[in-house]
Design goal:
361 residues, two-stranded antiparallel sheet, coiled coil, disordered C terminus, Substrate Binding Domain Of Dnak, Chain:A, Domain 2, cytoplasm, Endophilin_SH3RF, mainly alpha
């Protein structure tokens, strides 16, 4: 118990000394040991790497899983060291709904839903494979850096900062001890000073000499510990270059996985379009258009697109005395007696207007 109390008191004294040193540095009342420029650049580079890696990691999580509730659930399972249950993708769920609906309809619409539903399920399966590949090849290395390497670097940097405060506190204590020793070593005036005071002055000078020696020893120890910790921290910070190389390789793997995923989706959609094109009545028109198509087929017109296209010779004058006209090209009115028209526009005008400007119709 006595040992624990002494250890606690020693720790509290050390914390108080560091707090005093830190406060005096902020107030400009104490000197601060500055690190070399290369070391400062290494720390700045490490901070930049950590900040941007964290942002990229968070946004990649949002890209792969937009649902925040699902991300929280996966996070809890990870912290509890339990495997998260398999989750169906939105594409697979949509495909399942389409296929279930097709069973109820039993029409050309239903048969089309079956084909589209199968494609959506294949797209969902490809998406799930892409998510798993990206999580392993890209997200995991980024998370390992943030939760592993960076925590180690931060811990060593905090330790280095504490040792720097101890070193500067030793420098300040040695400086004060030397000043006190210099004052005590001043030769006293024997004519005005009693022998008793002279003895006290000599004793004080000896005490301050011992204090200086003790402070110098503490400074040497603090300097050695600080240099050793600075070297350890420097090696860790220089390892950021290796981290960049590793993340570059992971980034290439992520891009390859993403390209393969979109390529697979494109192939699935092309196959779906071909299958839909082979289905009968895949894009059947309404009853009116069907009757018009049948009449056109009897006259030798084979293309359904041509059936929907309005021809000038097919436009007949209505019973009201007006007629429709299709504009062949754009025309800007020259004055108030003319009309401004756009190409392919169907215009209802009186007969005398169309006769006045026949070149526009």
């Amino acid at each position: 118990m006595d040992f624990n109390v002494k250890k606690l008191a020693s720790g509290a004294g050390l914390f108080f000394t560091r707090a005093v040193q830190f406060t005096e540095e902020k107030l400009g009342q104490a000197e601060k040991t500055e690190l070399d420029a290369h070391f400062e650049n290494l720390m700045s580079r490490a901070d930049c790497t950590k900040n941007w890696t964290e942002k990229i990691y968070r946004q990649t999580e949002v890209l792969l899983q937009p649902n925040p509730s699902a991300r929280i659930e996966e996070f809890l399972y990870e912290k509890l060291d339990r495997k998260a249950p398999s989750r169906i993708t939105n594409g697979e769920l949509l495909g399942q709904y389409m296929q279930d609906a097709a069973k109820e309809f039993g029409s050309p619409y239903g048969s089309t839903l079956i084909k589209v539903g199968e494609c959506e399920r294949r797209l969902g399966a490809a998406e799930r494979e892409f998510l798993q590949t990206s999580a392993i090849s890209f997200l995991t290395p980024l998370r390992n850096f943030l939760e592993g390497d960076w925590k180690t670097i931060s811990k060593e940097r905090r330790l280095l900062e504490n040792l720097r405060l101890d070193l500067d506190a030793c420098k300040t204590r040695l400086k004060k001890a030397k000043l006190a020793e210099a004052k005590a070593a001043m030769a006293p005036d024997f004519q005005e000073t009693r022998p008793r005071n002279y003895v006290l002055s000599a004793s004080a000078s000896a005490l301050w000499s011992e204090e200086v020696e003790k402070a110098e020893h503490e400074l040497r120890v603090a300097q050695t510990e600080f240099d050793r910790q600075a070297e350890v921290t420097r090696l860790l910070l220089e390892g950021i270059s290796s981290t960049h190389v590793n993340h570059l390789r992971c980034l290439h793997e992520f891009v390859e996985a993403q390209a393969a995923f979109y390529k697979q989706c494109h192939l699935h959609m092309q196959e779906l379009q071909k299958e839909l094109g082979r289905l009968p009545n895949a894009f059947s028109l309404n009853s009116t258009h069907s009757m018009a198509a049948a009449g056109s087929s009897a006259e030798g017109v084979s293309s359904p697109v041509e059936t929907d296209t309005l021809k000038i010779e097919e436009v007949q004058a209505p019973a009201t005395g007006t007629r429709k006209a299709k504009v062949l090209y754009d025309y800007d009115a020259a004055d108030s007696s003319e009309l401004s028209l756009l190409a392919d526009e169907i215009d209802n005008n009186d007969v005398y207007k169309s006769q006045k400007h026949p070149s526009r119709y």
